[in-house]
Write a structure and sequence with these properties.
Helix content is 64%, strand content 2%. With 161 residues, it is mostly helical. The protein has one domain: Hypothetical protein af1432 (Orthogonal Bundle).
């Protein structure tokens, strides 16, 4: 799928600009996420890629864009030495949902997207196709964000040989 810069997509921005303007969302810039990005960059990546899939398949793009943006709306910096992954998976989704509910009105789909975006690490099955998409896109973005710089370095090293 061709990637377009989310900043140039007026239809997407119309769905999320009110959230992006909020200090609670902007605060995510200050938290490192997946080693090489910050939580806001990650959330926008998940939101925008989910939105694009929703457009392609005729799904609820509003729920995808907004739920994707708010899926990691929590502020602690997770340390795997302090908290096991399954506890973090469940806890941060619940905290993100609570924070999102305090920020804006959420649809049932948006709630489901946020609370179940860690499916696989948590047992709750997503109820909507939109929830499945955000969960899968979240996984893809996490891997891409964590590995991309390493893969670029590896490729550069291989070219120098």
């Amino acid at each position: 799928m061709k990637r377009m810069n989310w900043r140039q997509n007026q239809e997407y921005l119309a769905l999320v600009s009110d959230l992006l303007a909020r200090p609670e969302v902007q605060r995510l810039q200050t938290i490192t996420h997946h080693h090489y990005s910050n939580r806001l960059e990650h959330s926008i990546n998940v939101s925008y890629q989910s939105y694009l899939w929703g457009k392609k398949y005729g799904l609820d793009t509003r729920a995808l864009a907004r739920g994707g943006l708010l899926h990691d709306l929590f502020y602690y910096d997770w340390d795997p030495h302090q908290m096991d992954f399954r506890t973090h998976a469940h806890l941060h989704a619940q905290i993100a949902l609570n924070n999102a509910e305090n920020l804006t009105d959420l649809s049932a789909k948006e709630r489901d997207i946020i609370i179940k975006h860690m499916f696989g690490a948590t047992p709750e099955l997503p109820c909507y196709p939109e929830s499945w998409i955000v969960s899968l896109v979240d996984d893809y973005c996490a891997v891409e964000e964590a590995l991309a710089p390493k893969l670029i370095n590896w490729k550069q090293k291989m070219l120098l040989k």
